[in-house]
Amino acid sequence: MRKPALFAATILGGMISTSLALAQVPPSNSSPGEDDTPPSAAHQEGPGKFGAPSPYAPQAPGVNAANLPDIAEIGIDEIPTAVPQRDANPAREDWPAYGRDSNQSRYSPLDQLTPQNVGQLKRAFIYHTGSKPGPGQQNKWAAETTPIKVGDSLYMCSAMNDMMRIDATNGKEIWRHKAGVKYHSIPYTAACKGVTYYTSSTVPEGQPCHERIMEATLDMRLIQVDAETGKLCEGFGHGGQVNLMQGMGESVPGFVSMTTPPPVVNGIAIVNHEVLDGQRRWAPSGVIRGYDAESGKFVWAWDVNNPDDHHQPEPGKHYSRGTPNSWAAMTGDDALGLVYVPTGNSAADYYSAMRSDKENAVSSSVVALDVRTGEPRWVFQTVHKDVWDYDLGSQVTKFDYRHADGSVTPALLVPTKRGQTFVLDRTTGKPLPEFPVVEKPAPSPGPMSDDPRAPTQPYSVAFPRLSFPDLKESDMWGMSPIDQLYCRIKFRKARYLGEFTPPAVDKPNIEYPGYNGGSDWGSMAYDPNAGIVIANWNSTPMYDQLITRRKADKLGLRPIDNPHYDPSGGGAEGNGAQADTPYGIVVSPFWNQYTGMMCNKPPYGMIEAIDVKTKKVLWSRPLGTARANGPWNMPTGLPLNIGTPNNGGSVVTKGGLVFVAAATDNQIRAIDLKTGKDVWSDVLPGGGQANPMTYEVNGKQYVAIMAGGHHFMMTPVTDQLVVYALPDKAQ
Amino acid sequence: MTSRSRPRRLGDWATLALALLIGLFGLIFVGGGGYLASLGGSLYYLICGIVLIASGGLMAMGRLLGGWLFLLAWAGTIVWTIYEVGFDWWGWLPRLFGPTLIAILVVLSLPVLRRQDTIRPVSRGAA
Fold this sequence. Notes:
The complex is a heterodimer of chains A (731) and B (127).
Chain A: H1 2-18, E1 107-108, E2 122-128, E3 148-150, E4 153-157, E5 163-167, E6 173-177, E7 196-199, E8 211-216, E9 221-226, E10 241-243, E11 256-257, E12 264-265, E13 268-271, E14 274-275, E15 288-292, E16 298-302, E17 331-333, E18 338-342, H2 357-362, E19 365-370, E20 376-381, E21 397-402, E22 408-414, E23 422-425, E24 437-441, E25 456-460, H3 481-493, E26 509-511, E27 525-527, E28 532-538, E29 542-548, H4 549-554, E30 583-589, E31 591-592, E32 597-598, E33 605-611, E34 616-622, E35 650-653, E36 657-660, E37 667-672, E38 678-683, E39 693-697, E40 700-706, E41 720-725
Chain B: H1 10-38, H2 44-60, H3 64-85, H4 89-126
Helix pairs in contact in B: 1-2, 1-4, 2-3, 3-4
């Protein structure tokens, strides 16, 4: 009878599970395990211990994809006075920058689409970027692209950095610049969030390269083409390109890369780059650099461990290794002459004992750099001694904050993965008095005696938190009592002291909020007229554990520049070798790895509207249905509004609508700004993990979303930009 | 009516299968729940698991009491669910959806168990 009973259990289990709504979460190939090998003290012996390549070693062939010569420096005073840029004061019907305007507000003054008529929205056209995984290529795609729109054209990049101009009314390609990025240059993800529209300060109107499209590439080039023709701007860099690997020292393709549009502030193009997480302590530098947007010549560097030298390293030298990298989109401020840099962590995210004081002062922070010198004017830190990968993924948004007495302060909205949202005075970097920041005790020093945690962490106590309360055992979930029991055991086996539970070797720790947010790169939308912030966020805890070097070796964790590197063994968001330190790291979602369901109860993703004036939540609701999610990654088809993990931001319009995709249900929806209710939705051909945008041509309002999907979010990858508008008769 | 020593009707087979399923769940509950309790977690699974093993065992022996024990565990689970999560619908799903389906099957098996229970002494005598 044993067999029939088991069979019955299987049938029953299957019956129960298919009727349930479940969330989709990222994959992992290993669950944390313990290893009683005592931690080695090798890190005290310096960077050479684990056989790291010399940072002075020449860059491997292909790192500098274009084989570009070095670029010369130019003095700040030799730079021509910048002309006003399109994004400083965008035309009503345009979307000339990643976040629409130089405030990065993601607010559009268009109002043809309203809650009343948006239900009639139909697809106007689909444009194919042509970039998706080829035969035999591992799926590392997540285009994450937001087109910009100027005049009657859209300008965008493909996931592999081709730049395109397309007719904004019908999707016809006008030109394409082939960037020639190779597959091996893809770091963790092939993404290109957008391009920059730059108006030249020296080339007169009507001549080539008066208006330019600029992008930063996965293989570390800064490229400018003529907006009209797509031809390279010969006057920029070497034939239109600048090699950003200059001064980076030893590296391999895919170790450092760029995925965000570089802002131009008072004529200076500022570039940051992603350094692949989890590889080694002495990874290439996270240096931030300013270039003359006109000529491509180098102006300054901000090199964290070498703060007084703003020049390029001499030949054979390199920027300081392992410093915090900044991969999120930066925000420029022409009036204050600043660029706001959202920083991440020093290399080797989960172990902080080898970081310098200079690094500890600026990691997981917003750093306001003077665009003339590269010198920090102020720093606001969101996490002290971060070992949770709580780097700043969001682009900060500028806005004018009106105090009760009527005075106005130029302010900065700083979303974080922690779900804490800081509101700063952007002249000083200090929190606005209305949004005080309180240092609250955090678990410290923690179990790693050589790597104590900070005693306190900052909280923005007046801004509604974008997170749920700490987890309890009774929050564990599943499709039956049995997998709920499994998750309860997993919960009890971990160390969990609430937020900021320190990672350790002896047992796993639960990281909640997880490194996917709170808020991540989708950032926030801000309606300046209504004073309303739109924020979507995640509730997806992670399960982390430090492992000894021996165990890391056993798991096959090697850094990307190791000849025996196995890309499937650990990526930026998963297990990492953390070479040059005593410990590797295993990271997975806090989930039931047998069913692929998160261990915590839903919702896993939310969207809400917050009134900045009253600090009240106007509405808050789960984002994303269970239609494309389920146990064992089977779609349930259920319209249950479970709230799925989400990646990508929103747009808010004067018409009173919020457009957002982001969720793993592969839908784009319009939400009524007043009520928070869906008033329209459409199923996309792929995952909508991108920020949507909206524009108008010939009196018709369009909404565009890149349905590029996301490999990590396990949504279908496509090369399709989907654009909607009202049918002609409905306008 | 020639032999009552082993179940022969469809209802009897189904009830036995249900009994073994409940017993299996009980074993998993006792094993996992015991471990959970040793980690300082909820005692519910351990206690419920013991009741489920008893329930499944008695049902397999054709005892009506086994069915009632399951329904008692089910009722207790409702009380425990309210204690743990109140009326949060998502919280009810894992705790009660599957068990309620089984409870319906148990209710359906009650007539079978009642018949088996009344003829039990006869079948035991015949064995």
